[in-house]
Amino acid sequence: MKSKSIDIKSLTAELRNISKQGDGSGQRIVNDPNKKMYGDRSLGESMKNQAQKSYEANRKSTSRFLEIVRDINAKDQYQIDKFIYVDSDIHEVFTKLKTHTKLKLSYLASHLLEEFFIEHKDSIKEIISQKQNKFLDK
Question: What is the value of pTM for the model shown?
Answer without folding.
Answer: 0.54
